[in-house]
Design brief:
Elements: H1 7-15, H2 21-26, H3 32-42, H4 55-67, H5 71-79, E1 102-104, H6 105-118, H7 126-137, E2 148-152, E3 166-170, H8 177-184, E4 191-195, H9 202-212, E5 221-225, E6 242-245, E7 264-269, H10 275-289, E8 295-300, H11 305-314, E9 320-322, H12 328-337, E10 343-347, H13 356-366, E11 373-378, H14 384-399, E12 407-413, H15 427-439, E13 443-449
Parallel strand pairs: 1-2, 2-3, 3-4, 4-5, 5-6, 6-7, 7-8, 8-9, 9-10, 10-11, 11-12, 12-13
Helix pairs in contact: 1-3, 4-6, 6-7, 8-9, 10-11, 11-12, 12-13, 13-14, 14-15
Length: 450
């Protein structure tokens, strides 16, 4: 008689399959225990299966949720002229909605519109989507278990979860007081992402900042995108471990700020009239906080050597780095000073970046014993013959190192990249080269991302 693994073991196994939806889906068919375990993980963030090119997926998810509606909600549907005969003959095996830990209002809205089109409802308005969202909240969805929510500031559904750990809000011209209450009512908010905060009035802005005060000690990750903020408030989040900023206008928030637990900093800055002041602030920020940083991403549209010199001087414990590198000596300085560096990301097709041959040569000769990861970005073109030769020389040089770790190599390729038609080398040749050095244990892992 076959031995049945206990539920705790199955949970641990299936959790490792969280990003492998096909394998996880096949686990539903093994037996009842595997089914009960896997279905909870699949439905935890069911919205990640959304695919704009595959509307039948949206239809299937919404139909399943509608099938979970109680009779009272079905009657409300009929009274409002929405008659949907869901093609599910038997009652659902589970209350699937109760397994949801993540809600994306945007994706719900799009999925519902796909469903309405399928059933040939002539006029589709935002009220339809809000109405459906209300019905879903009535479908015995245990939103007290919800841990992650993405929404716009004009959404005002009939539920509020007080146990969110992650909240993403895209602010629009329309502002709902529910958003303020949603923020202030959370008991253990850890991750906050805010976009387009400048679209609200000064009064609403003050209300939002006030509601955030409650989370000054619990928030560990903060992202501000396209937020021209006039009042300093970032410094109140004393326990931040990750900070993401994408605009020069928010950098003054960092002035003289100290975060004892900050490990990850990701910033985007542009060349503008205020860029010199921004550089000075970032320079000072790295001087104060750089020693604790392990991950640093600096995305910029022009070269600023002083910032690279600052990170080489003040960030000795970096493990992952992305920055605009244009000269050989600066790269050597970074590799020598950041002795714990494990991964570096490099824009291979950046015309104003450091020459690729020099980059690979310096990397092979000056990277320290912990280094193993290389991420190459291709935004517009893929000079494949040049890449082939660069990689071949780099692998040979890496093979000759006295202290060597097997490499992890990742290509990040834009959807709009192009390869010169006259090229005699193609991606298959690149993969064959990589496979050759895998056999020599020079390369441990290769991944292609788009």
């Amino acid at each position: 008689m076959p031995c049945q693994l206990p539920a705790d073991c199955l949970i641990d196994i299936f959790e490792n399959l969280y990003d492998d939806k096909n394998t996880l889906y096949s686990c539903l068919l093994v037996n009842s225990l595997c089914c009960e375990t896997a279905v909870r993980i699949l439905w935890r963030n069911v919205w990640k299966f959304y695919n704009n090119n595959k509307p039948y997926i949206s239809l299937s998810i919404i139909n399943t949720l509608i099938a979970c509606l109680p009779k009272e909600s079905e009657e409300i549907l009929h009274k409002n002229g929405i008659n949907i005969a869901v093609p599910i003959q038997k009652p659902p095996l589970f209350n699937y909605a109760s397994f949801c830990k993540v809600i994306s209002i945007y994706k719900i809205d799009v999925m519902i519109q796909h469903t309405l089109k399928k059933y040939k409802k002539q006029s589709i308005t935002s009220e339809d989507s809000k109405f459906y969202l209300y019905l879903l909240s009535e479908a015995k969805i245990h939103l007290s278990n919800l841990v992650k929510l993405r929404c716009d500031s004009d959404i005002c559904p009939k539920f509020i979860s007080h146990n969110l750990q992650s909240l993403t809000i895209n602010f629009r011209n329309l502002f709902s007081k529910w958003i303020r209450d949603l923020i202030s009512s959370q008991n253990n908010l850890k991750i906050l992402k805010i976009a387009n905060l400048q679209y609200i009035s000064n009064y609403e802005y003050k209300e939002i900042i006030l509601s955030l005060t409650k989370h000054s000690l619990t928030l560990t990750r903060l992202t501000l995108k396209n937020c021209k903020i006039t009042k300093q408030f970032i410094a109140m989040f004393k326990n931040l471990q990750e900070l993401n900023l994408d605009q020069n206008d928010t950098f003054y928030q960092l002035q003289n700020a100290y975060f004892s637990q900050l490990k990850i900093l990701k910033i985007v800055y542009y060349n503008s009239y205020s860029s010199k002041d921004s550089i000075k602030i970032l320079f000072k920020f790295l001087e104060i906080n750089g020693n604790n940083l392990t991950v640093l991403y600096i995305y910029n549209n022009y070269y600023e050597q002083s910032l690279n010199l600052a990170l080489a001087k003040y960030c000795p414990n970096l493990k992952i780095l992305y920055t605009y590198i244009r000269d050989e000596e600066t790269l050597k300085l970074i590799l020598n000073n950041c002795q714990y560096l494990e991964v570096i990301e490099f824009c291979y097709d950046g015309r104003e970046w450091l020459d690729s041959k020099i980059f690979f040569k310096v990397l092979a000769n000056y990277s320290q014993k912990y280094f193993y990861g290389l991420i190459l970005d291709f935004y517009s073109r893929l000079p494949i013959e040049e890449l082939y030769q660069d990689l071949k020389e780099f692998f040979i040089n890496w093979q000759g190192r006295t202290s060597q770790r097997s490499l992890s190599l990742i290509f990040v390729i834009s959807e709009t990249y192009y390869i010169t038609k006259s090229a005699k080398i193609n991606m298959k040749d690149i993969k064959l080269l990589i496979d050759k050095y895998k056999k020599f244990s020079i390369i441990k892992k290769f991944e292609l991302k788009r």
